[in-house]
Amino acid sequence: MNVAETDADELTLDGGPLAGRSGSERTCIVNRRASSPEGLVRFVVGPDGVIVPDLKARLPGRGAWVTATRAAVTEAVRRKLFARAFRREVTVPADLPDLVDRLVEAQAIASLSLANKAGAVVAGFSKVESTLMSGSAAGLIHASDASDDGVRKLGQVLRRIFGDDPDTMPRVTAFTSLQLDLALGRMNVIHAALLAGGPSENALARCTALEVYRTGDVAGGRPSASVNEPKY
Hints:
Layout: H1 3-10, H2 17-20, E1 26-27, E2 34-35, E3 40-45, E4 51-54, E5 64-67, H3 70-78, H4 81-86, H5 96-117, E6 121-123, H6 125-134, E7 137-142, H7 148-162, E8 171-172, H8 177-184, E9 191-195, H9 198-215
Helix pairs in contact: 3-5, 5-8, 5-9, 6-7
């Protein structure tokens, strides 16, 4: 490794957890582009030399940042970029992309649970339909195993409201009915709606972060993706 490479790699690390959570831009070790921390995942080296995802940007030590997509994390593993960034031998879990996926998914599910506890979730086809028609819905949730008929009928409601642009309403489809049951503390949740407000905004942002991690694509009209702590 030459001096130029060393200097460039040094710039990819933050100065520690407090610096990592600041609003300043961080540089992805994969694409070398600087962007807001909200669109990246922080990684640190654990005491045993193992690379650890730090989604909350709180773990001690200097951190390396990767764009918050499965493709970027996979590329960082494939190209052995963590060892290069930290300038030392490290152990990278073979399932690191899957581990990050599980952590981002857990954050999204937890955010739905918090929104539910705040009274910001209604469930059941009729209640969801009424909420959409009243204009008080901030987002629509379909279980990934929902019937096509139910999804189609609620889609018709959205078209009546938004005309040719039903995608104006953010939709969450990442979770099975069982996952939604556990998150919302109810049985047989197939369709749900998020009511406008802070808890729902956070839940939608977390769910979008999961979608972006898995697909690498930020859907138009959705809340900005973030794997960071909620701001309230």
